[in-house]
Amino acid sequence: MSTEDRQSRETAGRGLPGLRGTDHIGFTVPDIDEAARFFVDVIGCIQVYELGPFQSEDDWMARQLNVDPRAIMKKLVFLRCGFGSNFEIFQYIAPDQRTIQPRNSDVGGHHLAFYVDDMDAAVRHLEAHGARICGVPVTRESGPSGGQTWVYFLTPWGMQCELVSFPNGKAYERTTSLRLWHTADPGG
After folding, report:
1. How far apart, in whole angstroms, are the C-alpha atoms of residue 147 and residue 75?
2. Whole-prediction pTM
3. Lowest CB count within 10 Å: 7, 102, 145, 174, which one?
4. In which band, very low, low, confident or very high, does the pLDDT at 4 lie, cut at 50, 70 and 90?
5. DSSP states of 61-129 as a string?
6. Could you give phi then psi for residue 66, rounded to 5 degrees?
7. Span 40-49, pLDDT tens digits
């Protein structure tokens, strides 16, 4: 039985009917033009389209988007990022808006991880473009993530991101036929 057949059988009756995967990841930035330039010029995403502004005189923004009813979405931009998920970035103006980036340890904390083939070249590229590298690349020698190298970095506005690379796979792959989705093998 193939891995795909086994996964289908194991998840039958659970989860979202017809689930295919992640379509996009959405996040709010303080300056959408700066963020779009960073993701295009530094990361290498492709800007596909933009929309906006959006606002409503009734409670539509609260009902549909779970934001303050008087919030204004100045603009949203859709980006394609290599063979991974698309990004939908927003810039809002809202009466109750919080402007401090959450850390990973905060509820709602998050980071975006980018798979790269050459960690050293990617770190040098980010440094040359003013990104703050957090520490130094770490290579896991053991455990399920053995063989993976990673390092966090911050965008110019302080959003947490990560570079990750495991060109020879991860250790867990030697003990199971199950696989995490991987940008280098999107169908695998």
Report:
1. 40
2. 0.87
3. 174
4. low
5. HHHHHSS-TT-EEEEEEEEE-TTS-EEEEEEEE-TT---SPPPTTSTT---EEEE-S-HHHHHHHHHHT
6. 60, 40
7. 999 999 999 9
